[in-house]
Structure formats: C-alpha cells, structure tokens
Amino acid sequence: MRVTLQTLLDRSANGGRLSPDEALELYLEAPFHALGRAADVARRQRFGDQAHIATYLIDRNINYTNVCLTACKFCAFYRAPKHAEGWTHSVEEIVRRADEAVELGGTQVMLQGGHSPELGIEWYEEMLRAVKAAQPQLAVHSFGASEVVHIARVSDLSFADVITRLRNAGLDSFAGAGAEILPLRPRTVIAPLKETGETWLEVMETAHGLGVESTATMMMGTGETAAERIEHLRMIRDVQDRTGGFRSFIPWTYQPENNHLKGETKATTVEYLRLVAVARLFFDNVVHLQGSWLTVGKDVGQLTLHMGADDLGSVMLEENVVSAAGARHRSNRRELISLIRTAGRVPAQRDTLYRLLTLHEDPALDPDDRAISHFSSTAPGAQQRVDLGLPTLA
Ligand code: SF4
Q1: Is residue 68 lining ligand 1, measured as CB closer than 6 Å?
Q2: 163 close to 207: Cβ distance less than 8 angstroms
C-alpha cells in the first residue's frame, strides 16, 4: 500500500479531516479491507463505550399523495396532476395510519409525498396538527427541502415562513430525502425540474437555523461519477460545519424499475460499501451513518456495520416510494435484531433523536414480530393492511 493512502487512512480513522481530493483518492484507491477497517476505527472512536451497539428504529412512511409536478426521471411513484391514477389521502386516513404505527410499536412517522399543485401550506398544517393531536408522542420526521420549496411556491411564502409554520403545526424534524445527488450535472440529468442542490442545502441550513434538524441522504447509481459522489459529501459537510443540524447521513442506491431513467443501477455493492466507509471517514462532523438494507439488501446492509455504519434504519412498517422502483427487501424487527447481533454488535431500538429505547442483550428476550415492513399500493380504496402475523424470514 502506498504510504500516502495509509497516512490518509490513519489520519481520518483518528478524526483528522480529509479534503475532498483525499476522500476521492481513498474512495478510488484504498484497499477494500483497509478502508473498512479505518472506517470501523473511526466509528469506534466516535461512539466510545457505546461502540458495541448498533441501532434500528420502527417507523412508518405515510405517503399522502402521489400527485407530483416535479416528474423526476428516476421516480416510479408519482403521477402527473390530472392523471387517472393520482390520489391524495384524506387527513383522517393519514391519522388512521399514524394510529396504526403507534399500535405496532412505531415511534416515528415519515410523511412523504409528491408535489401536488393543489396542496398549499394550510393543508400541510392541518395534516400535522391532526397527527400530533392524535399521537402527541409520535415523532414527525417528515417532508424535506424539496417540499419546502414546493410549498413556498404554491403558497407564495419564504422558505423560513414555510419551515416556521410546519414546525409550529407539529413538524419535529425534516427527512433527508430529495437530496438525490446534489452536484448540478447529474442532478439535472435525473431531476431537471427539482430545485438545485444549492437550494436544497439552503433550505436545510435555514431549517437548522430555525431549530428544525434533519438527516441527509444520497442516492447513488444513476450515472454520477466518483468525483461527483465525493462532491455530494463535501456540499453536506460544508453546511454541517455552519449548522450542526444534520443528525445522520444515509446513502442508498437507485432502484431501476418502472421509471423513465431505466437502466440498471450503476452503483455496485462494492462501490456502495466503499462510499459508506469513506462517508464515515469524511464526515468528522456528522454523528450517525445509516446502512440502507431496503435498497441494497439485508446482507449488504449488515456489511455496512463493518464499514463504519452504526445504524440500520427502520423496520419500515410501510414504504411505497423506493419499493415502487423495485426495492423488494422486506424485513421485520426480529430479523433486523438478528442481522445486528450476527454482525457482532448489540442491537438496540432507538428513537428519532438516536436515544436508546431498548437494548436487546439477551436473545431469549427478543420482542415479538408485530413490526413487519409492508409495501403496498396506497391508492384510496385499495386494500390496506399491516401485517400482524408471524415473520417471513425468506
Ligand atoms: S421523487 Fe418526489 S419530487 Fe420527484 S417525482 Fe417522485 S414524488 Fe415527485
């Protein structure tokens, strides 16, 4: 191994800052196992006496509408305004799903939907107030910078006004969705009508300044270069230096079915795992790193725990957006616990703020399997059901 690579690995594993060029060098050239080891050292240094733990949570994605005028090319979920298959759930239905999430042990809901020209700030406020009134303890970790841009346009408000009104109506934190790939070239190819990466970050910075924290995501595999992947990380790290408001970074892979982009995902498993490791080394200022079992599969998700990740995300009682594009990886609580345990870590259920709720030290005391991921059509009138039965481990 070249001295420079080892030096970079040693420095970043011990908390030293990598430049974007250095991160790219590690991403492209560092030996796989050495990269993973360095990321794991960085993770252990960061979490100290809790480094033996890896976390998961139970939440439900509630998609309130599939009507969207942003028409991202990678998206298999949306229908254009006036399309016969467009739908928008009633507030009552959204509350019913939130109630169901709590009944199944969920601690968080992610309200996510398209950019419908019919929905202005008042509709979002009504939805938030209703969910909070019904389930005040449920964390509403929802929407994202793209929704703020959309609502600001529909309701003729500033970003700060939209964020403040959403917060006052019950929003706890923003989800990191919509980041996709932030640099201009690849973003314009896959989502020409979406706000720019700079605007996405501007909204997040504004939100953090108003006390609304968020996560940050990255979708890889639509044809972006390695340098553009690292540039995405840099853009997030620069904002984080100013705000500290990103709680975690969550990379996932593009799912290629049923959309206008078509083609296979261009992120291999090794590229994904290398990106996870480099993210752990590069983000000296973002605490948590989540592996995406939903898009890369449970075995690769488990491997992320050896590449710097400390969290496997949610059981996902309901998910309809990436599953519409081909993600088929269902899971349940017992299985996520098992993945974490067989990766050599102690599983723990966490909440939205990453506080530990339950430490699963004794396998004999593992919880039942009522919390099972469930993907379905969310069209009004479609049969809606959350699986309460025994786990499917296949
Ligand atoms: S990803 Fe979101 S913004 Fe883009 S088309 Fe799909 S629903 Fe609309």
Answers
A1: yes
A2: yes
C-beta of 75 in contact with ligand 1 (< 6 A) = yes
Query: Is 38 inside any structural domain?
Result: no
pLDDT tens track for 94-118 = 999 999 999 988 999 999 999 999 9
Cα 323 to ligand 1 centre (Å): 14
The rounded mean pLDDT for the chain is 90
Is 33 within a domain?
Answer: no
Whether the predicted pLDDT of 383 surpasses 70: no
pLDDT tens column, 68-84: 999 999 998 999 999 99
76 lines ligand 1 (CB under 6 A): no
- Give 127-164 as a DSSP string: HHHHHHHH-TTSEEEE--HHHHHHHHHHHT--HHHHHH
If you take atom 7 of ligand 1, which residue's CA is the nearest one?
114
In a domain? residue 392: no
> Domain holding 275: CATH number?
3.20.20.70
User: pLDDT tens, 127-142?
Assistant: 999 999 999 999 999 9
Q: Are 228 and 112 in contact (CB under 8 A)?
A: no
Q: How many domains does the chain have?
A: 1
Residue among 307, 296, 297 at smallest CA distance from 335: 297
Confidence of residue 390 (pLDDT cuts 50, 70, 90): very low
Q: Is the CB of 200 under 6 A from ligand 1?
A: no
Element holding 24 (H helix, E strand): helix 20-29
- Residue 177 CA to ligand 1 center (angstroms) comes to 10
Average pLDDT over residues 280-288: 98
289: domain range? 50-365
In the predicted model, what is the mean pLDDT of residues 187-192?
96
Global pTM reads 0.91
Question: Does some domain include residue 371?
Answer: no
